[in-house]
Write a structure and sequence with these properties.
single chain; 250 residues; alpha/beta; UDP N-Acetylglucosamine Acyltransferase, domain 1; 2 domains; eight-stranded parallel beta sheet; 4 helices; 26% strand
Length: 250
């Protein structure tokens, strides 16, 4: 069922049994699989691929939601696999934002009011609670659960089958039963063109933060004393200083 009120671009392919509701805007060359639901408030960019049974822009699973007109934005080139669910926002932010060239694997979930960057991968059965902020190039392993309001810095890797309740600074691997710092995401950084010199500098910063025995405040002071606050170093410092609920431990 395709509403006559929906705005659908050129070159789109829509599978059997798909439902597209009234307040929907779909860009060009979008593929929507069979029995997918594109609900009110969906704003789908060009070249997005939505697979069988996926549900986009459904109402948030939040008891505070009172049917306010909110939206879900999905960036260009993003792929949403079978039975993944992406909720629209609540009155707190009025929108959920998914960036470009992301991949949400089968049965993954992104809740209301999330802000998710570009090139993010959420593996099978990942569950991202509401109000999270996930930066570019983050990879989240299968069956991981992300607590509401958690922030994850760019280029970080979250391993599978864990519950994340603290913020994860950029460039690192977070994993283990109690989710701790497990070193730099070196393979990911190299794939994205980081030089050895750049990686080593980032490692030196995290050696102070996680291996010096200092608390976070004293470690930040030492980092500021020893490094110019620019580029990757500035990104790390800014992330930690803006962390409301604290970062993962070493």
């Amino acid at each position: 069922m395709i509403s006559k009120k929906a705005h659908i671009g050129v070159g789109c392919k829509i599978g059997e049994g798909a439902i597209i509701n009234d307040n929907v805007i779909i860009g060009n060359n979008v593929t929507i699989g069979s029995y997918a639901l594109i609900d009110n408030g969906a704003r789908i960019s060009d070249d997005v691929v939505i697979h069988h049974g996926a549900v986009l822009s459904s109402p948030p699973q939040d008891l505070k939601y009172k049917n306010e007109p909110t939206e879900l934005y999905v960036g260009k080139g993003t792929i949403v696999r079978e039975y993944a669910t992406l909720n629209r926002g609540t009155a707190q932010r009025y929108k959920t934002v998914i960036g470009e060239n992301c991949l949400f694997m089968a049965y993954s979930h992104a809740a209301h009011d999330n802000i998710i960057g570009n090139n993010v991968i959420a593996a099978n059965c990942v569950s991202i609670a509401g109000h999270c902020e996930i930066s570019d190039w983050v990879i989240i392993g299968g069956l991981a659960g992300i607590k509401q309001f958690v922030k994850i810095g760019a280029h970080s890797l979250i391993t599978s089958s864990l519950i994340l309740v603290k913020d994860v600074p950029p460039f690192i691997i977070a994993g283990g039963k109690n989710v701790k710092y497990q070193g730099l995401n070196v393979i990911g950084l190299r794939r994205r063109g980081f030089t050895t010199e750049r990686i080593n500098k980032i490692k030196s910063v995290y050696d102070i933060l996680y291996h010096s025995g200092l608390n976070v405040s004293d470690a930040l002071k030492k980092i500021k004393d020893e490094f110019e606050s620019e580029g990757d170093v500035k990104e790390i410092i800014t992330f930690i200083e803006n962390s409301k609920y604290g970062i993962i431990k070493g």
